[in-house]
């Protein structure tokens, strides 16, 4: 019988010492009976035979921190812990108790796995995630800047505020003249928010007739009124559930609708027209107006309680004439868009460019975008000259000045020499005078040359 036990012990010892796993077996007092010498390299000591050593001593020396075998001896149950070695490694240890027939603890078997590399990979992964998150933020910022081109500090400050409040659900009130781009700023706010993948519902309050406003905003049940769909209709507010509801021209809201909108904002629920059941809703409210809501409150045309609900984060969008440094950038931005859209290659004459930069743009960015589109579509030449501009922009600009400026640019482009440029210019001026004057004597008087010279030159160029 003793031979059999000795043989089993020898086999067990051989298995442990040749195993690729880090295994240690102790007795009930914590003395090491069997151990893989390679096991101890993960704890920062050379491969050695620690048979007979006490795990309590190793724990006191800081080699085992803590000793999992000592924990099992104390608790009499399976234990798993993360150990930290004197060399800075992290070891995941698991130990199991072994009991005899009478329930007494006789052995503790423990396994150790070096987790240092895995933890390093986790840290690298977390760092990578943070970098990716940063890159995504940069991409968003680039996208927004491409969507709304700007150089001005005023617009930069608007974007900085949008970035700060995007992650909240605070109501934002965009203020500014018609055409300054309030809708684009609202969309940018939505795209930077946690709701970016949810609906962005835009409602222009000035375009919905008052008698249809309630049914359009809140929806209606089937058979609610004459002409209503038999299936009912979902309102715009419900369509914005979990997303962003953008109410443009909020100052146009009828007073009776203002009351109902206030309730929806406060309670996040409403009842459709003809309905009986309340619908709970979750949306972020963004509004815009070109009116002075404070004056409207004083006049009684806008509810004060609704105004204070909306005026949480007011953002004033400056007009285009207040940020002239953005005009050139916007012109090039929309010219590129329209050339791509209509497969054209138009560009602005330098004089045209100057006139557009100096224009006051009462219609703001919308007017500029529409004008560039019109110029790309209607201009016959590849270079858009000032003659293509509306009279309001070019004022009393002389047609001759426009054409001569264009002619000179074209001549330089064609790489003519000075003699050829002078001849082309003389020809242009002479023929222009011929169109406007009744005789060669009048031409001579206008140009300050002799009448025979006029006749000779006309014969040459005609």
Keywords:
19 helices, five-stranded parallel sheet, alpha/beta, elongated, 462 residues
What does this structure look like?
It is built from 19 helices and 16 strands. It is α/β, with parallel strands linked by helices and 462 residues long. Strands 2-1-5-4-3 form a five-stranded antiparallel sheet. The chain has a five-stranded parallel sheet with strand order 7-10-13-6-14. The protein has a two-stranded antiparallel sheet with strand order 8-9. Strand 1 (22-27) and strand 2 (32-35) form a beta hairpin. Helix 18 packs across helix 19 (451-461).
Could you provide a short overview of the structure?
This protein has 462 residues and is an alpha/beta fold. The chain is 48% helix and 16% strand.
| Computed structural class | alpha/beta
Tally the helices.
19
Beta-strand percentage range: 15-25%
What value does the Rg take, in angstroms?
41 Å
Distance between the termini: 133 Å
Helix residue percentage: 40-55%
Strand segment count: 16
Low-confidence stretches: 142-146, 396-400
* Adjacency order of strands in the biggest sheet: 2-1-5-4-3
* Averaged pLDDT: 82
Describe how the helices and strands are arranged.
Elements: H1 2-18, E1 22-27, E2 32-35, H2 55-60, H3 68-75, E3 79-84, E4 90-99, E5 105-114, H4 116-147, H5 153-165, E6 172-175, H6 182-191, E7 200-204, H7 210-218, E8 219-220, E9 233-234, H8 236-239, E10 244-248, H9 255-267, E11 269-270, E12 279-280, E13 284-289, H10 293-299, H11 304-310, E14 313-316, H12 327-341, E15 347-348, H13 350-358, H14 364-378, E16 383-384, H15 391-394, H16 399-413, H17 418-436, H18 440-447, H19 451-461
Helix pairs in contact: 12-14, 16-17, 18-19
